[in-house]
Amino acid sequence: MTYAVIVLTGGKAERLGGVDKAALSYRDATLLDHVLSVVDDAAQKVVVGPEKDLPGVVWAREDPPGGGPLAGLAAGLAKVTEDWVVVLAVDQPGLTKDTIARLRGTGRNAVLKDDRVQWLIGFWNAAQLRDALPDDPRNLPLRKTLLQLDPVEVSALPGEAQDVDTPADLDTLHSG
């Protein structure tokens, strides 16, 4: 089953001093490079955020920029032509190809769950996702919209749902 991916790179990163999370270095690349590497078999790659020079990526931008993750998801989904879509945040260094395979393997709407549901690590039916989106998604909670789709929860492996939100997270990222 082919699928698309939407990677959300927006956000203010206030707790990190406003840095561009997509450009943060991780191993020998960036966080955006890492996230795209775990979905390299996606038929379509849509990145929502400020455009960068990356081949094979379709770019989208929420209107207005900074309208929140649900607005970013709506902007990305407008570019998707596949029936299924993986939705990811850019600041997820713990993601692996196996994470994506386990989500896709459910064959239905699915989200990763560790100590809490990770709404920005999921696999969704694109048509159902479009139907669930509010007319104006700006600054509305992502969780409320995605919860309507009754996703199965896939248990995260240790470290898999790690994200980068604070300077301590960034230190962990660079020491790991």
UniProtKB/TrEMBL annotation:
Bilayer-spanning residue ranges: none
Keyword terms, alphabetized: Transferase
UniProt-listed InterPro entries: MobA-like_NTP_Trfase (IPR025877), Nucleotide-diphossugar_trans (IPR029044)
UniProt keyword Transport, yes or no: no
Entry superkingdom: Bacteria
Single GO MF annotation: nucleotidyltransferase activity
Residue numbers spanned by region Disordered: 157-176
Residue ranges of domain MobA-like NTP transferase in the record: 5-133
Gene3D superfamilies (UniProt xref): Spore Coat Polysaccharide Biosynthesis Protein SpsA, Chain A
Designated name of the protein: Molybdopterin-guanine dinucleotide biosynthesis protein A
Organism of derivation: Lentzea albida
